[in-house]
Amino acid sequence: MKLYIKYMVSIRCKMIVKEELMKLELDYKSVGFGEVELMEDIAKLQHDQIKMALHQTGFELMDDEKAVLLEKIKNVIIQMVHYTDELPETNFSEYLREKLDYDYTYLSNLFSETEGTTIEQFILIHTIERVKELIIYDELTLAEIASKLHFGSVAHLSDQFKKITGLTPSFFKSLKRKKPAHLVICE
């Protein structure tokens, strides 16, 4: 039996869900981003228990088919941008179509209607978040980051970065270097 869970976007989220399943003594085959495959079907009482346990930890059990698909779109994008070393060579619309086995126009319309923004904008926001991570890690140059994340040039990356954050990448990087003059410790 598959369960679909909203707000599961990181490895830490998966660990929390696994802990909750163990507490409820529910055996699972796999726990992925946004979904859990249980070893067997569960009774209504168990369903309600897991729904409550997940809610208390900040997650939401989803039953609506469109909500599940919307969460899958988000999870595929987050997985693609944040947890792969290289973005796919194909365009994002083709990538989503292949991963989710739905017509991209349908996915795009569903996403826009529900989220009030486009898939492209959602991808860009997450890509800029990834750029920020890579800048903070300070292991790659801006040119390498631009290439890795398929920006046409450093100038294009900088323009998109500034549109989303209001800062240039170099100014953002300089913020990382600034340390507070003193720390106030509250007890």
What is this entry, summarized?
Helices cover 60% and strands 9% of the residues. The protein contains nine helices and four strands, in the order βαββαβααααααα.
Question: Keywords, please?
Answer:
single chain, 187 residues, alpha+beta, Alpha-Beta Plaits, 4 strands
Question: What would your notes on this structure say?
Answer:
Strand 2 (28-32) and strand 3 (35-38) form a beta hairpin. This protein has helices at 11-23, 44-56, 65-82, 92-100, 104-115, 119-137, 142-148, 154-165, 169-177, and strands at residues 2-6, 28-32, 35-38, 60-62. The chain folds into 2 domains: 2-63, Alpha-Beta Plaits (2-Layer Sandwich), CATH 3.30.70; 67-176, Homeodomain-like (Arc Repressor Mutant, subunit A). Helices cover 60% and strands 9% of the residues. The protein has a 4-stranded antiparallel sheet with strand order 2-3-1-4, with helices on both faces.
CATH homologous superfamily of the largest domain? Homeodomain-like
What's the count of strands? 4
Largest sheet: 4 strands, antiparallel
Give helix % range: 55-70%
Number of domains: 2
User: What is the radius of gyration?
Assistant: 20 Å
Instruction: Note the total helix count.
Output: 9
The residue-averaged pLDDT reads 90
Strand order of the largest sheet: 2-3-1-4
CATH class of the largest domain: Mainly Alpha
For the terminal residues, how far apart are their CA atoms? 48 Å
Range of strand content: 5-15%
CATH architecture of the largest domain: Orthogonal Bundle
Give the overall form. globular
Kindly name the structural category. Answer: alpha+beta
What CATH calls the topology of the largest domain is: Arc Repressor Mutant, subunit A
Write the element-wise H/E pattern from the N-terminal end onward: EHEEHEHHHHHHH
